[in-house]
Design a protein that fits this description.
The protein has nine helices and 14 strands. By secondary structure, the protein is α/β, with parallel strands linked by helices. The strands form two sheets. A five-stranded mixed β-sheet has the order 1-2-3-4-11, with helices on one face.
């Protein structure tokens, strides 16, 4: 039995499908992404002008189904990418955070590049060091992976740019609508573990969402128990057995965390702090994607080094570690 808002009780009809309450209210539960996102198939009344014939066709052709806020715009962006690249389906999506930009060149051959500003729902990033493009990349397929095409986002929308979790989610939702089954989320972060100095890559095993926000609207009960794929983390350790893993805490930003906030994050289980990834990952699971997260330590978190924090330091640490972590990420993606 699941309890809906305001005390209404819902009886489970399907574990990963629709939940119908005894008063006719509809809510949904989502489990691990064994199958594409399951949605309510009952007809939903819409006004005649709410969806154009073109939007309806895009919806029918897209793997991202349903009427959750943001889905329609993601389908439009995916259709624009398909038209610009000539690629009907991108199997893997990669979101490149601070320090990870060089990986795009090593993953495979870039066949098309599209400006994010030309795609529905996207805007040029406001953060220095981020590349405002989306690449269609032909995967090398050198490892045990299956080749195909990857969609590589050179930047992401951060929550602090618009205070809009839906805008943050647009990247991964577009990836799902473009046919991706897996999304790779990367970031630059501060470390709460003294042994993890700048330049250390860390697998994300779990997260703390400290933004006070969610990309989900309504009764969307998404299971996050194994959000960061154990399967892909195991593959990553086949590439580099020394990789540590930790819990990433997302703060809203754009200000860096105070020493007290860092101590709080550590007390509740955090190992890394940053301003991205958690909201993206929630939206990705909701859209049916398998999620792999990887952080690059760019600095010691506030209060750990005795030095003030700066964005220039973050960017420089990313540049210094770039070739090594890019090769590592490419090696992992080769096996997916």
């Amino acid at each position: 039995m699941v309890r809906e808002g305001r005390g209404r009780e819902c009886r489970a009809v399907e574990v990963t499908g629709t939940i119908l309450s005894h008063r006719g209210h509809v809510c949904r539960i989502h489990g691990a992404p064994k199958l594409r996102h399951v949605t309510d198939t009952s007809p939903t009344p819409t006004s005649p002008s709410s969806q154009t014939p073109q939007d309806s066709q895009v919806s029918q052709d897209s793997p991202l189904t349903g009427d959750h806020p943001g889905f329609a715009e993601a389908r439009q962006a995916a259709a624009a990418i398909a038209e610009a690249t000539g690629v009907a389906r991108h199997r893997i999506a990669v979101v490149l955070g601070s320090g990870w930009g060089g990986a795009a060149e090593l993953i495979g051959e870039t066949t098309h590049t599209v400006s994010t500003a030309d795609l529905p729902g996207f805007a040029a990033p406001s953060v220095p060091g981020h590349n405002p493009t989306v690449r269609s990349v032909r995967l090398r397929g050198d490892g045990a992976g299956h080749g195909g095409q990857a969609l590589v986002f050179g930047s992401r929308t951060h929550y602090y740019e618009h205070r809009d979790a839906g805008a943050v989610a647009h990247t991964v939702r577009t990836a799902a609508a473009a046919g991706a089954e897996t999304v790779v989320l990367t970031n630059g972060c501060g470390s709460l573990v003294p042994e993890w100095g700048p330049g250390t890559p860390v697998l994300v095993a779990d997260h703390l969402n400290l933004t006070g926000a969610t990309p989900l609207v309504g009764a969307e009960f998404v299971d996050l128990t194994d959000l960061y794929s154990p399967r892909i983390r195991a593959i990553a350790r086949e590439v580099d057995s020394s990789l540590p893993e930790g819990v990433y805490a997302q703060f809203p930003g754009p200000q860096y965390e105070t020493p007290a906030e860092v101590r709080y994050a550590k007390a509740i289980g955090g190992d890394l702090v940053g301003m991205s990834t958690a909201l993206d990952a929630i939206a990705a699971r909701h859209a049916g994607l398998e999620v792999f997260g990887m952080s690059l330590v760019t600095n010691a978190a506030a209060g750990f080094s005795g030095q003030p924090l700066s964005h220039d330091e973050v960017v420089q640490a990313g540049r210094d570690a770039g070739p090594r972590i890019s090769a590592l990420l490419a090696g992992i993606i080769d096996r997916l």
